[in-house]
Amino acid sequence: MIDWAKLWNSFTFQFIDKGGYKEVLRGLGATVQIAVFGLIIGIIVGMFIAIIKVMPKYNFFAKILDKFAVVYVAIFRGTPMVVQLLVGHYFLRPLIGWTCDPLIEAIVIFGLNSGAYVSEIMRGGIQSIDVGQLEAGRAVGLTFWTAMFRIVIPQAIKNIIPTLGNEFITLVKETSVASFVTVLDLYRAFEQIGYASYSFLIPYLVLALIYIVLIVIITIGVKLIERRLKKNERKN
Amino acid sequence: MNAKIKSDEIVLSVKNLTKNFDKLEVLKGIDIDVKKGEVVAVIGPSGCGKSTFLRCLNCMEDPTGGVIMFQGENLVDRKVDINVHRQKIGMVFQQFNLFNNLTIIKNITLAPNVVALGNLRKAKCKNFFIKFANLFRKKDAKKPLIEIKQTKKEIKKANEEKAYALLKRIGLEEKANAYPSTLSGGQKQRIAIIRALAMDPIVMLFDEPTSALDPEMVGEVLDLMKQLAIDGMTMVIVTHEMGFAREVADRVVFIDEGRIKEESAPAEFFSNPKNDRLKDFLSKVL
Amino acid sequence: MKKFLTAILAAVLCVCGCFGLTACSDTPTVKIGAQTGTTGYMFASYLKGTEAKAYQSPTLAVTDMQNGVIDYVVTDKAVAQNLVDKIEGIKMIDVALTGEEFFGMAVDSTQTELLAQVNAFFVEKAAEINAIQTKYLTGDEANYVAVPKNVEVTGATETLKIATNAEYAPFEFKQGEDFYGIDMEVAKLLAEYLGMNLEIVDMAFSAVVTSVGTDGIDMAIAALTITNDREENINFTDAYYTNSQVIVCLEENEALDDAGVLMDILAVLCANG
Prior knowledge:
- The structure holds three protein chains of three kinds.
- Chain A is mainly α.
- Helices cover 83% and strands 0% of the residues of chain A.
- Chain A has helices at 4-17, 20-54, 60-78, 81-96, 102-128, 131-139, 144-174, 186-197, 201-233.
- Helices cover 40% and strands 22% of the residues of chain B.
- In chain B, helix 3 (104-134) runs antiparallel to helix 4, helix 3 runs parallel beside helix 5 (185-197) and helix 5 runs parallel beside helix 6 (215-230).
- Chain B has helices at residues 50-57, 82-86, 104-134, 152-169, 185-197, 215-230, 242-248, 266-271, 276-285; strands spanning 10-21, 24-35, 39-43, 65-70, 73-74, 89-92, 203-207, 234-238, 251-256, 259-264.
- Chain B is of the alpha/beta class.
- Chain C is built from ten helices and 15 strands.
- In chain C, 39% of the residues lie in helices and 26% in strands.
- In chain C, the strands form three sheets. In chain C, strands 5, 6, 7, 11, 12, 13 and 14 form a seven-stranded mixed β-sheet that branches. In chain C, strands 2-1-3-15-4 form a five-stranded mixed β-sheet, with helices on both faces.
- Chain C is an alpha/beta fold.
- Chains A and B meet through helix 6 and helix 7 of A and helix 2, strand 6, helix 3 and helix 5 of B.
């Protein structure tokens, strides 16, 4: 039989009295940082990869870029997040003599991974914009990239905000494997409390609850952004 | 229109223009010279290639073969910078294609600003290098700097004033800060026309400009186009509006099966067609 | 076509079902859990007629034992004693499973001077080290000293960066933000002795030994047993603790209660082999 009272007591003892909450806050900070900066990097990288895939391949250089984009997406969509982190940590790090904080390393790898997925989202977004928009931009003398960035991309992003929000949610949940490369994230903080209190039951339940709350907050945030953007469109 | 002064200067010269889509030959050899100030109407049955022909003129479709001489360069040649030439070829689309994410005033000033500011940046860069190289040159061998006539702010202001003037001309200046989604089709198309005008084009191409409009709005667009013709703009118009063609065009061209089958002044074209297919087409349309 | 496909699907399901049943009806082997990469795990995997399961730490192994996933846990004696004190319903069988094993600290193989200094430290500070060990082995919690992640030593210019796996009470464990344990307090003492600041990097046990020499990590202090294959990549200091492996099992499991020596235990565990 599970002695809830005792388990709860040892949990709160570790969490409050022994300062476990400080590590939880630190872990929460790491999780949020990885997710937010990872998404930002992902959007930037994804935008470029998407445009490379969409642009007319007139010269040799464009063709090379396209092949590169295909390989990039295949690598990052074809391997699990954990594997990417481990390869980054145990192979890339010594190879290029990278000596930064593991948190930065995690942000970069999550960002690159996210970039691959966002590029597909962005590509769909770009292709959903009427081709006439790009044509009109080019007909008036703008270069392909200028027309893309000033006319098509802004409209595409508005359309893909809900999907980007989903990507962000996925990213937040995926950060739980960052502890594989010694980053102190939310999951690791609770794991430590579990060790210190010799029971993992309550720590992991609380961890799950916190993740749910985080995701709900993000979902509401995305809906608000969507609504504001739609309002702007109807402005006269 | 016969009242304006015409010149014999050829602004756009097309020789043996061909266009294939994979195996399908759409244009089989078009030859045409467009003179300055001339209004050329292009008519023909659907699928004859008239829209393709128009879109080849500014390389929205890449021609498969032939020569298009504009501003002294062959636009078909891949090495030619088409963007520079497109700045002087205005295009008006059937679906208007106003930039939905920008206000009307920004729609009109976007391209002029981008182009002018780009040139400004290039001039400043060149000046930097000239100044640097001049340090090593003797006094009388020093190269002069490129004159910069306007600052960034002045450029933007000038372009905005020009845009407002254009809007005023069509009576839509109160819509300057509106978004395209709030306007009617006729308003959108007229704004699309002045958006093209803002770049001071040498020739304007119209791809069935009134085909997507409700009947009551066709008139206002045609009136604007008529005004442009009177003002001396060189225009190539693909259209189904025979009345407009008869009234405004200097020359009417009939394209069928990828070739020009008949070409003459409107009076002769409509009252005395020689080509059988044209006779057939006109009998169905008029 | 549809009927053919349904027939194939049914056949595949039947075959899978048969496999499943046969797997379940195997005579149950004794399952022993141990921390991955430890000498205890190696012991468990060599026993005939048993199945060894790897865990990230002994605490997780014990939790699984309580949930019935495994039957026994093999771990270091001091760790076992601590687990038995802190968790209800388990007991330790006080029979040494292996000969004497010794703990050493792993030092980056390029830092021979540091190695010499640490060995000297063991000799000079033997009394303090013993006091710390006794404190933890007797469970004198009131006197535990917290060791933060970064310890500043007055007048220190360099930092001693050590790797550990803080899931191993009483040697190294974490409560809140601070580290506790024999190894941790000795590490602090060592840093003060060397006149260096201390930085503790906590990581998975499997990463601890390989991390020495990378990212500026000078030593690994993690209750490491001195073994030959570990010595290929790092240099061990002299031994600072004598250890043996023992078995932990559930209180109600009486199978090993009469065991006095290793042979008795093997007789019980390997009965199915």
